[in-house]
Amino acid sequence: MNAGLAVRVDWRTCLSLIGVVLEALAVPLGLTAVVALLSGESVVPFVVPAVLTLAVGFTLRRFDRGDLGLREGYLIVALTWLAIAVVGALPFVVAGNGELATPVNALFESTSGVTTTGATVVADFDAHGRSIHLWRSILQWMGGLGILVIAVALLSQLRVGGAQLMETESQTQDVNKLTPSIEATARLLGRVYAALTGAMVLSWLLLGFVGLAPNVTLYDAVAHAFTAVSTAGFSPRPESLGAFSPAVQWVTIPFMFLGATNFVLLYHLTQGEPERLLRSDEFRFYLGAVLGAAVLTAGFLAVSGQFTSVEATARHSLFQVVSILTTTGYATVDFNLWSPAAKHVLFLVMFSGGMAGSTTCSIKTLRWTIVVKSFRRDLFTEVHPEAIKPVRLSGRVVDEGVVRDVYAYVLLSIVVFVLLTVFVVTDAARAGVGDQITEFDALGAAAATFLNIGPAFGQAGPYGSYAFFPRTTRMAFIVLMWVGRIEIIPVLVLLTPAYWRS
Questions:
Q1: Distance between CA atoms of residues 476 and 422, nearest Å
Q2: pLDDT one-digit tens code per residue, 190-216
Q3: Is the pTM of this model over 0.90?
Q4: CA-based nearest residue to 353, from 345, 365, 336
Q5: In terms of C-beta density within 10 A (0-12 exposed, 13-18 middle, 19 or more buried), how is residue 498 classed?
Q6: What is the DSSP letter of 352?
Q7: Contact 236/133 with Cβ under 8 angstroms?
Q8: Are the C-beta atoms of 330 and 342 separated by less than 8 Å?
């Protein structure tokens, strides 16, 4: 074979590491089987996938493993999410209950879980046992931790649409290779992640103990802690957070907010270095976006007379803005019933996302911070063409190439979103359900899946499901949830011949 045409990617090492991941998945499957046993439910939906993943993982792990470079990093990022999503769907199919019994719906739910999207095809929650609902939450918790580690340790080094700026903002170090520094990074971030999860469980149980959350159980606390800190949004309750008291809703807000905050900065905060967080331009932008959108939403709700009390107006507006902006996707009420102005604010914040280096999805405030700073710089140089005014992030000069990367990523995200919207509308018309989907509903569903938000508007709203979309649309959503979660670029890189051959 011509040496110039040889495959340049060490795919054997990538498959070997995927094997390690698959073997590790047997642990959460086994733990969920224990919950099923204690709940008097069948353990088969979890034992069978556990055996299969162990067998496949063992087989893949036998491939020779070499050193990992950035080229292999792209493949690892893409394949890991696909592999976990496929394994995650197996318990749904084996259980064979409700909407999740079909392979497409099972893969949709699993992909939504692993990518921390929170979009669901489940309409009849009672058709599924406690163990299946817990598995949905576990998928999201694993997905949040996985993307957190990969984002900090790998994506920041792959020049993914300006994500390399994350190292400047959080001052991460020694994360340019998957091994061995990835292990130390994973342990560090995992401790913060687990601590936040545990703190939320305890806070919910404490509210129940003092009588402010009478219907909260240990199961509720754990299942929702898994999906709040991961900014994911699955709930075993059909009413989502609307099933719980106002106190529970207020307490959940800061955990969603922290889940979408750069975890490296949170780690420094635990080490007594709050100045790192306070000096972050991105954090200030993130906080300002949350407060600004919440105040605007509260104003629209007050004008429309949506709620009868100031407390309810403030709580629901702040909760929904934080939930949507951080891409968590919980709901306290059916915001489909809100005024058009309030709903449009929620639609706009879908494109924000939280900070880079967190569990959040969407475009992220790091990029929007650069866009705003760059635009202000351009306005200044229009008036003062002789001025040299670089873009600065937290006091450090941002390379102009990075600024271009950010603009390109934002533009690419918007283009993909528009194309997905067109596909949703067109496919609905082809399937004869076009009259059930308004243009705003299609816009919301496209944004909610591609940007990994979860609930949209209309029938795909907070108390609805995506099951009514045509099968082909749901399949497109599966692909776009995966593409959006790993930030587009790694997938596009894999599709280029130069990646494999040059």
A1: 12
A2: 888 999 999 999 999 999 999 999 999
A3: yes
A4: 365
A5: exposed
A6: T
A7: yes
A8: no
